[in-house]
Write a structure and sequence with these properties.
The structure holds 2 protein chains of 2 kinds. Chain A is of the alpha/beta class. In chain A, about 35% of the residues lie in helices and about 20% in strands. In chain A, helix 1 packs parallel to helix 2 (about 65-75). Classes of the chains: A alpha/beta, B alpha+beta. Bound molecules: flavin-adenine dinucleotide and iron/sulfur cluster (2 copies).
C-alpha cells in the first residue's frame, strides 16, 4: 500500500473541487485532487445545454466547455496532483484517507481535507422500478452525452425540475421520443423557459400526476401514470397507459455525504438543501476542524455557486495552512462572499438561503453545546466535534492564526509558485 | 395560476405583455422575449448591440424591451440559453410573416425546405418554408432558423418540424 502525503486533499473534481484546488494551489498549497471518474468536471461533463447565470461568468456557455477549460488549468498546475479513476473509500479518525486507484489501495495523508463529492440521485418506489429500463436522469445523461448511446426509443420522465426538463430536451435532441413528463406537485418545478422549450416540441407536461407502475417481461415495455388528489393519492379511473421502453427518474438529488458522516462532522437533515448536509461556517469549514466542504454535497445548488463555494473552501484551507496573508485573505474572502451573495440574490435562491440560515442556526447551537461541555469535560458527548485538525493533531489547530515560521515557509513557496498559477482561478470561471 | 407553470404554455395574457403595439408591429421586425419568471440570467441584455434590451439592475430581473431600438437582427435569439426569444417580421409580404426561431437539432434545415409550423404546445397549425439559416457561432451559439408563416399566425407559430408528424 503506497502512502502519499500532501498538504491538502480534495475529494471530487466537479466544479466545486476543481475551483477549490485552483484557489488553494494559487497560494502555493500542494494539493491532491481525487476523483473516481476518468474525466475531470463532475456533473459538468454531461451538460450540453447552455448555462444560465451571470453573463460575465459562464452564462450562455455550455457545461462541457466550462469543464474542459477547468480541466486544462488543473493539468497545467504544478501544485496539483490529480488522482483520477480513484475512489475515496473511507476517511479515518487519524486523518487517513483510503483510496482505490486502478493499481490498488493507497493511503493519502493530508493536513487538510475538502469534501466536494457532489450529489446522488433519489429513487422512487413503484411496482416495476427494478426492471431494466428504469434509469436515473444522471445515468441517462451519461449514456447519451458522454458515451453517445441512446437509452431507448421512448421515455417517460418522472419529475419536472430543471434536471427532468433539461434531460427531456437532450433526449429529444438525440432523436428519442419523450411520451410525457409527469410531476406530482401542482406546478412545474423547473424554470418555465425550460418547460416551454420541450412543450413547444410537443411533450405534454402533466402536473399532479405520477407513475403508478412500470411493466414488462424482461424489461420496461410500458408504464401507467395517474392523477393525484390533494392527499397525494392516485385517483382510480385516471390511469393512462404509455408505450415506453424507458422510465427516467428525475425526482431530485441528495448530497453524497458518506465521507462526512464517517469523519464525524455534525450533520443535519435540511430539506431545503436536499437532505442530510454537514454543518459548516462561512469559511466552508465543518465542525470537524480542518475538514471543509463545497458544492452540492453541502446543499444541492448550481455549478455557478459550487465554483464560488469551492474557491472559498480552497482559500480557507490555504489560510489555515498559513499560506495567505491577512490582507490577501480579507480581500479574497470579501470578493468571493460578494459573488456568492450576488448569485443567490434572486427569488430562485430563496429556498437555499432559508436552508443555509437553518443550518447556521444549528451550527450555532452545536458550538454553544460544545463550549458548555468543554467546561465540564465529564459530559462530553460521544459525537463531539473533534477539536483537532484533520491530521497531525498535535501540530496546530486549523483556525489558529498561522505562526511565524509557517508564514516564512509559505512565503518561500509563494514565490516559488509565482508565475505559473498567479490568478488562474479567476480565469477559471470567466467565460 | 398561469398555464405557464402548470403546462409550460404561456397564457394569452403572458403573450400580450411581450408583444409590441400594433403600430410597431407594422413597422418592421421586432424581438419578443417569452421569459416570464425572475431567474438568474442575463445574456440577452449583453447580446444586443442596439441597447434594445434594457440593462438589468439585478441578475434576476425579467428582460424589458425598448422596441424603438430593436432592429430585428436576432443576435439575442442565438444568445438566450432559455431559447425564449423570437424575432417576428410582419412586414415580410402581403400575406406572410417571417419568424426567427432558435433551433438546436441536427441536421439543420436548408433554405427553401418546407416545414410544418407548430404553436407553443407543439401542435401543427400550418405549413411554412425555411427562408434563412444562420449557423450557431462556435462554440456555444444557437443556430437561428427563419421561416415564413401565414401572417395571421405571427403571434402563434413558435416552432416547426421537418418531417411529417408520425
Ligand atoms: C441535468 C442538469 C443540469 C444542470 N444545469 C445547470 C445549469 O444550467 N447551471 C448551473 O449552474 N448548474 C447546473 N447544474 C448543476 C451543476 O451541474 C451542479 O450543481 C454542480 O455540478 C455541482 O458541483 P459539485 O462539484 O458540487 O459536484 P459534481 O459536479 O457532482 O462533482 C462531484 C465529483 O465528485 C466525485 N466523487 C463523488 N464521490 C467520490 C468518491 N467517493 N471518490 C472519488 N470521487 C468522488 C464524482 O465523480 C464527481 O466528479 C445542472 C445539473 C444537472 C444534473
Ligand atoms: S433582435 Fe437585435 S436589436 Fe432586437 S433585441 Fe434582439 S439583439 Fe437587440
Ligand atoms: S437570456 Fe433568455 S432566459 Fe436569460 S433572461 Fe434573457 S430571455 Fe430570459
Amino acid at each position: 500500500m503506497a502512502v502519499r502525503t500532501t498538504e491538502l486533499v480534495i475529494i471530487g473534481a466537479g466544479p466545486a473541487g476543481i475551483c477549490a484546488a485552483l484557489e488553494a494551489a494559487s497560494h502555493g498549497v500542494k494539493t491532491t485532487l481525487v476523483d473516481r471518474g476518468e474525466e475531470l468536471g463532475g456533473q459538468l461533463i454531461k451538460q450540453t445545454h447552455k448555462f444560465f447565470g451571470w453573463h460575465k461568468k459562464s452564462a450562455g456557455t455550455r457545461g462541457v466547455l466550462i469543464a474542459k477549460k477547468l480541466a486544462e488549468e488543473v493539468l497545467n498546475n504544478e501544485n496539483i496532483t490529480l488522482l483520477n479513476s480513484t475512489e475515496a473509500l473511507g476517511y479515518y479518525d487519524d486523518g487517513t484517507l483510503l483510496v482505490e486507484t486502478p493499481r490498488g489501495i493507497d493511503r493519502v495523508l493530508g493536513d487538510r481535507l475538502i469534501v466536494a463529492t457532489g450529489a446522488s440521485e433519489r429513487m422512487l418506489l413503484f411496482p416495476g422500478n427494478d426492471l431494466p429500463g428504469v434509469y436515473g436522469a444522471g445515468a441517462v445523461q451519461t449514456l447519451m452525452n458522454v458515451h453517445g448511446v441512446r437509452p431507448g426509443d421512448s421515455v417517460l420522465m418522472i419529475g419536472s425540475g430543471n434536471i427532468g426538463l433539461i434531460v427531456s430536451y437532450q433526449l429529444l435532441q438525440a432523436g428519442v421520443r419523450v411520451a410525457a413528463v409527469v410531476e406530482a406537485m401542482p406546478t412545474i418545478g423547473g424554470y418555465a423557459v425550460h418547460a416551454s422549450k420541450i412543450r413547444r416540441l410537443g411533450v405534454p407536461i402533466m402536473t399532479r400526476h405520477t407513475i403508478k407502475e412500470a411493466y414488462g417481461k424482461e424489461q420496461v415495455e410500458g408504464a401507467v401514470i395517474w392523477e393525484l388528489d390533494e392527499n397525494w393519492n392516485g385517483i382510480p379511473g385516471t390511469e393512462k397507459d404509455l408505450e415506453v421502453d424507458v422510465v427516467c427518474l428525475a425526482i431530485g438529488l441528495t448530497p453524497l455525504a458518506e465521507l462526512l458522516w464517517q469523519c464525524g462532522a455534525e450533520m443535519a437533515y435540511i430539506p431545503e438543501l436536499g437532505g442530510f448536509v454537514p454543518l459548516y461556517d462561512e469559511t466552508m469549514e465543518t465542525t470537524r476542524k480542518g475538514v471543509f466542504v463545497a458544492g452540492d454535497v453541502a446543499g444541492i445548488e448550481e455549478a455557478s455557486t459550487a465554483m464560488a463555494a469551492g474557491r472559498m473552501a480552497g482559500l480557507s484551507a490555504a489560510r489555515s495552512l498559513g499560506k495567505v496573508s491577512d490582507l490577501d485573505y480579507s480581500r479574497l474572502r470579501n470578493e468571493i462572499a460578494g459573488e456568492l451573495e450576488g448569485l443567490r440574490s434572486g427569488p430562485a435562491s430563496a429556498k437555499i438561503l432559508s436552508g443555509i440560515a437553518k443550518m447556521r442556526a444549528m451550527l450555532q447551537s452545536v458550538k454553544e453545546a460544545a463550549a458548555v461541555s468543554e467546561a465540564e469535560p465529564a459530559n462530553q458527548p460521544a459525537n463531539q466535534p473533534a477539536d483537532q485538525p484533520a491530521n497531525r493533531p498535535a501540530k496546530q489547530a486549523a483556525s489558529e492564526p498561522a505562526k511565524e515560521g509557517d508564514l516564512a515557509e509559505a512565503g518561500a513557496r509563494d514565490s516559488e509558485a509565482q508565475g505559473n498559477n498567479g490568478s488562474k482561478s479567476e480565469e477559471a470561471v470567466g467565460a | 395560476m398561469s398555464t405557464l407553470v402548470t403546462t409550460g404554455v404561456p397564457s394569452a395574457q403572458d403573450i400580450a405583455g411581450v408583444t409590441p403595439p400594433e403600430e410597431r408591429r407594422a413597422r418592421g421586425p421586432y424581438a419578443t422575449i417569452e421569459c416570464f419568471q425572475p431567474i438568474p440570467c442575463d445574456p440577452c441584455h449583453h447580446s444586443c448591440r442596439f441597447g434594445a434590451i434594457q440593462e438589468f439592475e439585478d441578475i434576476n430581473d425579467i428582460p424589458k424591451m425598448d422596441w424603438s431600438k430593436c432592429t430585428g437582427c436576432a443576435l439575442c435569439v442565438a444568445a438566450c440559453p432559455g431559447l425564449a426569444i423570437f424575432v417576428v417580421d410582419e412586414t415580410y409580404s402581403e400575406t406572410e410573416c417571417l419568424i426567427a426561431m432558435p433551433y438546436e437539432f441536427v441536421p439543420l434545415p436548408e433554405k427553401g425546405q418546407p416545414v410544418k409550423l407548430t404553436d407553443r404546445a407543439g401542435i401543427v397549425v400550418a405549413d411554412g418554408i425555411v427562408q434563412r439559416v444562420v449557423a450557431g457561432r462556435k462554440p456555444a451559439g444557437t443556430p437561428v432558423v427563419w421561416v415564413s408563416a401565414p401572417k395571421r399566425l405571427a403571434t402563434v407559430v413558435r416552432g416547426f418540424i421537418l418531417r411529417k408528424e408520425g
